Amino acid sequence: MVLLLSMVTVAAAAPATRLDRIVGRGQLVLGTSGNMPPMTMSGEGGRLSGFDIDMGRLMASMLGVRLEVRRIPFGELLPALERGDVDVVISNMTITPRRNLRVAFVGPYLESGKCMLTRDEALAKAEGKDINVPATRIAVMEGSTSQRFAHILLPQATLVPVSGPLEGVAKVKSGAAGGLLTDYPICLFLLKSNPDAGFVSVLSLLTYEPIGIALPRGDTQYINWTRNFLDRLRGTGTLKELGVRWFGREARPQEPPAE
């Protein structure tokens, strides 16, 4: 009898899971950078929108809670997730082995790659050895896989750190950088939104970039729920619809568009 009572007491004292806390407070807190259009971006009045924000809204809806979106600099997103300041990070974040040591990832929900946005046709068509020189100035977002990619494969090029793609575009327009190295969906958006900028639309999928949903490590139920959530989006065609809405095509770009 005493043993049974002890077991009941231990069970009752079991800590609430992350899902329990989210549902209990009626709110899912999403962390995102808000500066990587069309994935996550700020509009009029600072309202955030984009592919990733829609993913967050769907996730909150399926949990039966409201969504709170917190705009956090990209490099601070994973620390915020580790501290428990946010419940989930959806912010065009590439799943990498290094990041996966810190947090769990579900996905990918999008497969991307690197591309160079430039007004210099010679730069767009140059071979790697030709642009791996100090005279080549490339804008890259700080803390991104684009920055790491450039450091490894173009160690002699001059990297121009920027806070986001829009600042990178401004650098290219002003001549402060010869090109912007960023992700494929962002390239498509920037080309479409700057039709008169004279950008060369030669895109190359230089790397494999699996984009995923970042979650706190070690929470099996939360990870399982999110995996099933993503499977449902795929199975119902919702993920494809989001891709068409934000990119004008399915959310799994495979080949760059023809010029």
Note down, in words, how this protein is organized:
The longest helix has 16 residues, at about 220-235. This protein starts with a helix and ends in a 12-residue tail after the last helix. The chain has 12 helices and 12 strands. A hairpin with a 5-residue loop joins strand 3 (about 40) and strand 4 (about 50). It is an alpha/beta fold. It has a 4-stranded mixed beta sheet, with helices on both faces. It has a 3-stranded parallel beta sheet with strand order 5-1-6, with helices on both faces. The protein has a 3-stranded antiparallel beta sheet with strand order 2-3-4, with helices on one face.
Key attributes of the depicted protein:
disordered C terminus; alpha/beta; four-stranded mixed β-sheet; three-stranded parallel β-sheet; 41% helix; 259 residues; single chain; D-Maltodextrin-Binding Protein, domain 2
Short description:
With 259 residues, the protein is α/β, with parallel strands linked by helices. The chain has twelve helices and twelve strands. The chain has helices at residues 2-12, 18-25, 51-63, 77-83, 97-100, 121-125, 128-131, 145-153, 165-174, 184-193, 220-235, 238-247; strands at 27-32, 35-36, 40-42, 48-49, 66-71, 88-89, 104-112, 114-118, 137-141, 158-162, 179-183, 209-215.
